[in-house]
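Example 3.2
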Amino acid sequence: MSPEFYVEFFNYACSGLKVIPISSIGDGKKPAVKWKGFYTGETPYDIDAMKELFLRNDSAALITGACSGNVEIVDIDTKYDLTGDLHRRFSLAIKERIPDFFKRNPCIVKTRGGGYHIVYRINGNFTDGNRKLASRPLTDSELLDDPHGVSRVLIETRGYGGYALMAPSPGYEIISGSYLTLPEYTEEERALIIEAAISFNEITPIKEDVTPKARAEAQVDYEKTPWNDFCERVGCEEILSKYGYDIVGKSGDDLLVKRPGQSHSSHSGYVHTLSNIFVCFSTSTPFEPGKGYSPFMVYTTLVHRGDFRQAAIDLAQQGYGSSKKKNPPQALAPYKPSSEDRPLPQVDVPNTAGVFTLSDEVNKMIVEKSNHGAGIDYLLGYQLGKDALSQLVGFPKDAKGYLDSIRNGTFSMGFSTGSTYLDQYFRYKAGLIVMVHGIANVGKSLFTWYLAILSAALHKWRWIIYVAENDYEHCVRSLVQFHAGKWVNDMTYDEYRKSMDFVDAHFVIIKNTSTYSASEVCALAEYLHLDPNVGPFNAFVIDPYNSLTAETKISEGLRKVHSTKHDLDYEVMSGFRGFCKRTGMSLYLNCHTSTEKARYVQASGKAPNMYDVEGGGKFANRADDFITTHRNTKDSERSMITEMHVDKIKTTETGGRPTSADGPVEFYLWYSKYRFVILDPSSGFAIDPLELALKRGNGMYPKAALRASFSEPEPKPEPERKIGAMEIIPPVNFFESAQDDGLDF
């Protein structure tokens, strides 16, 4: 090894990486030093003591795992790839799950065998070892050469207790990034990387059915066991569909399955219809990734948390299996109320929706258009069974599925914004009240419309927008321009038509030609949501709150105590809560800052907080999520930057958290291109997640290209020079791909 190469390895070691010399004898992959004590901590690491070994041999390796700062390597072995494009397909699978994965510039190394290493760090308690993630069966010619062989590994990892040769060892070349600046990925993102790799596995070890120990307890001599009978009569897809998994497509003999909750991938597993076996490659389910499950095993896992005995007894009670005796187990009869059950008395209630008393005209609309076929009093009739009663009250046992999802980690996360940086603070979630607050003329409406069209592009969300202070044509124009990424008069005809069709498919605008109270505008939104020719919708925007007229009727209780505007606001917020619960839609409520606080904001240039909202803290108290938008219009250098202060996230376990007081998420309004880009402070780039979602570009722009002036000075151009192995190589387009965004490997 040349002294120059040793210096490079020495610098890597000084940065915290554990680098060891590799012997030149044999296959050139065996360590030239006893190294296991380095990762266990039993042996002090001293690269100076190994200098002679480095200089005597040609290659070096990186020990992976916690000892090197939670380094993990994904090894793609292309010499066993029969398709010739595994590396490209794998990069697309990662980008599908983590859109900015390659923009964060992981170190990508081309190996001497033509394969690739992806090197990065894990932010968390990383103890996972080496794992084989994707393999393929042997070909006929390979079986002739290796008759006892089983498979060839395509993708594997190097983690705790592993090592991998590194550049600049002979045959190893860094083609992107640097060992010195490895990006960190969260444990959740790491799970998505593993999921992407497992999706290419072609060998499925079948998870063996465990014969349930239920025969003795049931004292039944089966001619056909309940579990075998169940597997013959029920398809895996039937069970999965019943418990929240979606069948999203078909590929040959496989039904593609997507898990419940938020998933960045197009599918999470498949059911092989010929063998009736389910394989899941997601790490966010109770199933073991890459293993095959029979229908009985699927049922046992989802319904009885792996308790085979209880699952067998359950199926026997449902009538599965046949006994050699004359009286086999029968299915349990559904519950029927006896004649002694006392019916609930009939109750006369006013025609109300939530806490709002509706006019006869609005109630008639709901009667005609709702899926109940009758007024609200239909729900509050008499002799309600438990199913009907559960529409109004919650029974604790009915929440078991939700609690189980929290216990096993499969509860639904909020939907991504397309930016992992923004996802730390805010996610799209169903059925919540989201307050969007700020002083006048800072672009609250435009920012809310941007969030709306971003969700439409990412997750096909559909929105109702009530524009009280803007013409609906202006709203439509802004949405169309966001979609195209340019002003409407700069669009080609095809761009204009495509953007117009997209907006028309995802948005309905309530015009400001009439005024509405809170109850009336919610009733209209609910009508649109339930109308099969128009709905359903995912979210509703009221812009702004103070445009709503006073309720013509209030609850009897408030009338008796001579209620104030403060009391009425609380009642309206309760009505909004009922609207969200009934429809499952999220309500985005735009509101202004109080006059006194607005004067302070104008004078200081600082953003207000959620308790400065017009009407006081009741809105902050009743909201699920609270966003404050701010733009310092008097600062010429920051006048185009919208600050997003996330003041409140009610359920942080489903994603998101408040931003710090001096660390808002900053959106730059690139006026000439009519788009918002997110100014990620961790890099020199601005990210446009809408551009990524619509696949109209790579969504990444150098901050220096933006019109705003930033705190750091623009770097002066340097003379062209050769890039050494120690320097960071920016991400580039390594392989041609029709779907390539210019950033992969």
